[in-house]
Fold this protein.
Amino acid sequence: MPPAGYTEPMFQARRFKHCPTCGHAVEYRVPADDNRERAMCASCGGIHYENPINVVGTLPVWGDGADGQVLLCKRAIEPRYGLWTLPAGFLEIGETAAQGAQRETDEEAGAQIELHDLYCLLNVVKVGQIHLFYRATLLSPEFNPGPETLEARLFHEHEVPWDEIAFRTVRETLKRFFEDRRLGRAYALHTADIA
């Protein structure tokens, strides 16, 4: 039984139907030494945990100061086909968040970058994701988009198609970047929870 005051998270992932160890059907129960439901196998006794997924990407910029342009990619896949996003995707096993962000930028935009510090960490609790965006400097304005991208293009702030941005995390990252740049602030780490 969960402790007093415990509330179930808004996002209730139910990814497991069968035990990854033995293939038997799982049941969701609270283990004796835990405080939340887990996928438990009555056959082999395995307990399987479901944790947030990390999405990693970059905020690539070409040029300096107020004249610098950001790189956006038009999605060639669902969800949000045909809308614009920063180059990003799921972190893979065996890579760091920075390596994943660099790989996604190459895969989606075919862009060569110099990676900088982590810029935005956004918790998207409702869908069980954490989005991490790194600032990056484009080394060239030439792109070779991969199959997940219809078009990769540079935008000045006034050209960004705000009504066609695919994800709220991308919109929030762009808004923070342009505000920091306008106010002449250092590019410090931003964190936020996306409801």
About this structure: Helices lie at 97-109, 168-183. The chain is about 15% helix and 35% strand.
